[in-house]
Amino acid sequence: MKRITSLALSAALLASLSTPVLAAPAISVDTAPTAAVLEEENSLWELPQADTPDMSNTVWSFAGGYIDGGEMTQAEMDESLAAYGGTLQFTFDAAGGAKMIQGGGTLNGTYQYLDDGSVGVIFDYNGEELRYACIFTWTDEGELLMVAISDVEGADGIYFVR
């Protein structure tokens, strides 16, 4: 399990997916370790932010999650990933197209770089929009981590690594 200084998609996360997120609130960048930030602030928006990478032609694979203000356990991650056929990836092309690839199928969408440094992603789910604001931070191991946040408060998000 990748830790933000330590997703299976639960019902709580699925319920939060309909909450529109167009842009991230202002993100404070400090030098505190990421886990300490989450413990103190209890919001993904407060994570130290890495520079947004070039998203063109990249593949990001599921690495964990943060649900209702707490990190997912390994058992929750395993259960959620199994529910999605063992695969959960976000892919981005050079023309602004995005895909959410799951074991049971693929959702198509678009992405764009936002003025606040995040990446806005919208997937089409049977005519409904699934919206994410993606920010970037680091794992304890120094690996770049994409956090796809699905709610305004920053209490729900999915972690991805390249």
UniProtKB/TrEMBL annotation:
Keywords assigned by UniProt, alphabetized: Signal
Signal peptide residue numbers: 1-23
Q: What is this protein called?
A: Isomerase
Native source organism of the sequence: Faecalibacterium prausnitzii
